[in-house]
Amino acid sequence: MDRFDALQAFARVVETGSFTKAARALDVSNTTITQLVQQLEARLRVKLLHRTTRQVRVTEDGAAYYDRVVRVLADLEDADTGLSSAAAAPRGRLRVDVPSPLARLVLVPALPEFQARYPDIELHLGVSDRMVDVIGDHVDCVIRGGELEDSSLMARRVGSLALGLYAAPAYLQRAGRPAHPRELAGEEHRLVGYLRWRSGRIAPVTLHRDGEAVAVLGRHALAVDDGNAYLAAGVAGLGVLCTPRYMAAPHVARGELVPLLEDWRAAPMPLYIAFPPHRHVSAKLRCFIDWVAELLAGQPDIAPP
Question: Domain HTH lysR-type spans what residues (predicted)?
Fold first, then answer.
């Protein structure tokens, strides 16, 4: 039994939940995958997978073993790409999780250039606003706005998001245009709340002007935990938004959103790429981080770190 092939086969079965899909991913036969996993279990004298005719589930021992296998495979890949000849052409799978608006508006449209520059990197892109367990979910890096809550992670600040207040024309016709942030606490106004994923609490908004700071504590008819849904709620006239300007800009250009209280400013939102605290950063991850920093540096309404 080739131990590397067996470890790779086991990892792919766990990740895909299927011997057939794992075989397809590794470009080998189903029989080969089955034999490699069986040989691995025989050598370890532990059952790693529960198999039925309909599904494959990892056992408790298998889940613990998988966590270690993933690290071993990653270290082997890093050792290969650390060589000077391999570092010139980084390759391999890269798992990344990014907020949905940033993916839709900035990252995905630019990916053809990334793929042309790094054709041997296979990018697996998770798109969500939820807090991802970078280590537990086996993610190579995440891009997140706001201060990072997990101090154990390594992080690189890649930009700052300028924020603004916006509302749909239909909302302003109904509720009126506020002249001061305190008016948003009035009976006629509503805010769209953005829920913090981990706590379920609504993220507060504080505006500043000439040394004056005002916490916007208006009523919320709706609160959501996804950036795209948050933006859609504002466009639909459900309330006032406080959102990154790069997200609002296309809707402002189309007349779907109107900027409010433009002489007031919210503190910029820091934007980070966070990754596990490995001994070193792999060549493929380093290339991706540098590319994202370069991409964001050219975006309006996203300031340098």
Answer: 1-59
Give every CB contact of residue 252 below 8 A, 6+ residues apart in sequence: 166, 258, 259
Instruction: Name the domain boundary from 81, 116, 151.
Output: 81
pTM of the full predicted structure? 0.71
**5-22 pLDDT, tens digit each:** 889 899 888 888 888 888
Tokens 């005002």 belong to which residue?
Answer: 214
Q: For residues 183 and 255, state if they share a domain.
A: yes
- Inter-residue contact 141 to 274 (CB < 8 Å): yes
Residue 70 neighbours by CB distance under 10 Å: 16
Residues 11 and 90 in one domain: no
pLDDT at 253: 96
Span 23-82, pLDDT tens digits: 887 888 989 999 999 999 999 999 999 887 678 889 999 888 988 888 788 777 766 666
The answer to whether residues 134 and 279 belong to one domain is yes
Q: What is the 3-state secondary structure (H, E, C) of 157-176?
A: EEEEECEEEEECHHHHHHHC
Residue entry with tokens 């910029």? 268
Domain residue limits at 88: 84-161+270-303
Most confident stretch, 99-113, 209-223, 266-280 = 99-113
User: Each residue of 54-69: b (16+ CB within 10 Å) or e?
Assistant: eebebeeebeebbeeb
What phi, psi does 220 have (nearest 5°)?
-120, 115
* Cross-strand partners of 212: 209
